[in-house]
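pinging the channel bc i need a second pair of eyes. not urgent but kinda urgent?? the chain im working w is below, pasted from the shared doc
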Amino acid sequence: MKTWFLSAFSICGCICACSVDKIPKEYQEIGVPETYMASTAAIENGHTLFQRHCALCHGSQLDGEGSRSDLEAADFTSNGWRTHSSPRWMFYIIREGKSHSKMLGLKNKITEMETWDIIGYILSETEIQ
């Protein structure tokens, strides 16, 4: 699983360069802990954190079908989402929230490493088709 995860992560990182110009400079320079995010501990903790903080809107299956159907939450299982996102972009959005939407930032609720855990979980559960 770790080999697949790192390969998918590398592909996503290459494809997603288009998002970099939308990320504030301080987030563009953050190191991405690839190996850590692929660890079993990070993925398991990310699953727990996702269910606690994200599933209400994004759905427990990561499909955007949470119980808050009145919101337009990202479907992390869609190819469109996956090819237009990067781990840094995800980190920025999770920490700061998404402007012009109801996506609130979690930087005052979770640590930076917990943010990477959530990203690791999302990336481990979704595939580029």
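so The two ends are 16 Å apart (CA to CA). and The longest helix spans residues 2-15. — does that match what u expected or am i reading it wrong
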